[in-house]
Amino acid sequence: MNVLDPSEFDKQIQIKRPVADGGFxxxxxxxxxxxxxxxxxxxxxxxxxxxxxxxxxxxVASRPARVRMYWRDDITxxxxxxxxxxxxxxxxxxAELGFREKLEFVVEDYKPAGNPA
Length: 117
Known about the structure:
It is a single chain. By secondary structure, this protein is mostly beta strands. Helix content is 0%, strand content 47%.
């Protein structure tokens, strides 16, 4: 049995879920609402190498990271994590670590579509 080490979770993140706009003209204009209080997590940026430009379909240029947290059963792949002003979309996971001890996700920084200029 693994011993959980609380010191590995050194960042607070907010979990958010999408809520669709129910109006007739609200297509694509929903909002993101918080799922409970912020949680403690580990956020580790992935280090790119030459062979990992497109590792498993994940674009390294988009700042991929691994997020680990204590086990929860209420997180789905359509949610996102917010850490300060950094918004991270879930691109893989959740993966169960241990027996309902921890979860791991692969995330990418969210950037709105269009020309940033």
